[in-house]
Amino acid sequence: MKTVRWLGVGIGILVPTVAMASTLETVKERDSVRCGVNAAQPGFSSLDDDDQYRGLDTDVCRAIAAAALGDATKVDFVPLDSVERFTALQSGEVDVLSRTTTWTSSRDTTMGMNFTGVSYYDGQAFMVASDLGVQSAKELDGAAVCTQSGTTSELNLSDYFRINGMTYDPVVFDAPEQSIAGFEAGRCDVLSSDASQLYAQRMQLADPSMALVLPEIISKEPLGPAVRQGDDQWFNLVKWSLFAMLNAEELGITQANVDEQLSSENPDVMRLLGQDGHFGEAMGVNVDWAYQIVKQVGNYADIYDRNVGADSDFNIARGLNALWSDGGIQYAPPIR
Amino acid sequence: MSVRPNTRPAGHKPPFWRDRAKRALIFQLLLVAAVAAFLLYIVGNVQDNLSARGITTGFGFLSNTAGFGIVQSLIDYSSQSTYGRTFLVGLLNTLLVGGLGVLAATIIGFIVGIARLSPNWLLARLANAYIETFRNIPLLLQIFFWYYAVLRTLPSARDSLAFGEVIFLNVRGLYLPEPLFESGFGLIPATFILAIIASIALVIWNKRRHEATGKRLPAYWISFALIFGLPLLVLVATGVPITWDIPELRGFNFRGGITIIPEFLALWLALSIYTASFIAEIVRSGIQAISHGQTEAAQALSLPRNLVLRLVVIPQALRVIIPPLTSQYLNLIKNSSLATAIGYPDLVSVFAGTTLNQTGQAIEVIAMTMAVYLTISLLVSMFMNWFNARVALVER
């Protein structure tokens, strides 16, 4: 009977998915990594003139694809807003979430996801109109503050104003384009978000000199990729894809010189590039996984400079995101 | 004793599967059981999967501290309140814009709908242009239009438009003086309620008297005077026990008084104007559904024109108008969830947006939100169905 067959299909969809194939197997079978990203956050993830996603977060996705499949172009980017991102990851809509997401304890423990590391150390800041004459965030008592819904920014704001005995009116939008439009229209005195995002949004203003970013950083915002809980193999691969880029920078292996480095005698370089040992195979991927990352995507300095650093419009100094050996706090465990 | 040959032996009933009523009952029970089992299976499956993935479930989160601010709240709310409280704040904000939207849409809709049938060429064309414009532009665009177009034309807080130095309008909203009631004010609402009761009694008495004697008083005008005049009289007699909290510019913004945020104004305008264009068409069709012969017959009885409308045309037109009007009310209330696009803190923005994200409990939060919209819509339908049954033509 037809009805019975449709009922069967319905039940088939709902069969428990606990015992499904590992994420890496699924990715290999599909021959692409599904990566949840921002729809439009210049510097981290936005479409360029050729309809290609560009940015730090999207390059992290490409690195994962290079490690898992040997081809950095095999990424399906899934643009997500800040409200739907966790559900998309939890439900298996995306394999990895690389979407300027702050690593917090509750997200790690109650949402069924694990952060694999920190791709960008950020902090929340305030942007104000220059003609307001405000020099410090402490002068913002009574201000109207535009921010984005579903972000840690909302909580930080309320904490910051309460601790400092100040009041504010929150104006909460669900997309960054709308919060910047609200700021430009004068609906709010202040736009608050992660500092990196504020710099990007300032560039999008009709007249960037009308706004300035206040010096106070009011929170810790470690941004990084996250995966679903319960698949340690995939968790390791995503984690070490980022570490490989950091290690490559530390060892002086760049996208430009990676082929020369293949003949290096340095044991650390040989281990990273798969000339010595079988670290890739232990992760379930090819032995040259890290070589492919650096060759096709670059080391951490390459992707930083290209997207948000010296070679980009934003020119954000490395700061905390410099390697530990250069005065920052980016530090990757060794590959051995 | 003689036994008639055609009767069945005593005590012998047909087997239950031959009994049509019992058979139907059994099938119904089987279906209910199957549906229940299916639902149980889904719920169990969801719970298994959520716990297998380490996602917290249950409604315990409602008593946790929310920790974020909300710009407009009809009840006491601070960032130290609970997630349960954010639900109430969002719900009330939704009901506020929905209720006022229904009211405004109905008034505008009726005026435009009647204007469209006006013999005045200009008026009819203007009404037509209104309907065709607003009915054919997507609502979200209209909301953006009212929000950004209105925002950009308003002055900043420091150059506010002042009306008599007590009302201020700027890009942050409309600031009104807030009445603060002193002791002795309780008398005024009491008189108000008394006047309403007296008016109802008057209208009923007037109707009976009219039916008995043919004489009538202008009861509606008298009621109007009672309801508004009496409290006003008491207000003056008690020496106006109200002080006003007048908004004043301090720092960045106005403090004190009542603030109507621009998000609310934009959403309210957009919802009312958009829905009114549909209601206008419904009203027009309702009036045109009444054959012109009815009007002519009423005029032949020398009823005055306003009574022709009130006693003959409108009661019959309402029969046609009310069922589709209900759908428009439901649409308006559901469309109010577009608030989230411009940052009006309605249920979807506050609860299904921020709260969902902070807690990560999508299933519980979305289920609660859906239940709210379903409940509101069912209540509105129930009321409108009751009203429809009241105005329905009694067929004889």
Automatic annotation (TrEMBL), chain A:
UniProt-listed PROSITE patterns? SBP_BACTERIAL_3
- At the top level, the lineage of the source is Bacteria
Entry keyword set: Signal, Transport
Solute-binding protein family 3/N-terminal domain boundaries: 32-261
Biological process (GO) annotations held by this record are: amino acid transport
Pfam families annotated for this entry? SBP_bac_3 (PF00497)
- The answer, when asked if Signal is one of the entry's keywords, is yes
Residue ranges of the TM segments: none
Q: State whether keyword Signal applies.
A: yes
Q: Which residues form the signal peptide?
A: 1-21
List the SMART domains: PBPb
Q: Which PANTHER family match?
A: AMINO ACID ABC TRANSPORTER PERMEASE, AMINO-ACID ABC TRANSPORTER-BINDING PROTEIN YHDW-RELATED
User: Hey, which family's this protein in?
Assistant: Belongs to the bacterial solute-binding protein 3 family.
* Protein name per UniProt: Amino acid ABC transporter substrate-binding protein
**What is the organism of origin for this protein?**
Vreelandella alkaliphila
Automatic annotation (TrEMBL), chain B:
Positions of transmembrane segments: 24-43, 55-75, 95-117, 129-149, 184-205, 217-244, 264-283, 365-387
Q: Which InterPro entries match?
A: AA_ABC_transptr_permease_3TM, ArtM/GltK/GlnP/TcyL/YhdX-like, MetI-like, MetI-like_sf
Q: What is its main location?
A: membrane
- Biological-process GO terms, alphabetical: amino acid transport
Could you tell me one molecular function GO term of this UniProt entry?
transmembrane transporter activity
The family annotation for this protein states:
Belongs to the binding-protein-dependent transport system permease family. HisMQ subfamily.
- Identification of the protein by name: Amino acid ABC transporter permease
State the organism named in the record: Vreelandella alkaliphila
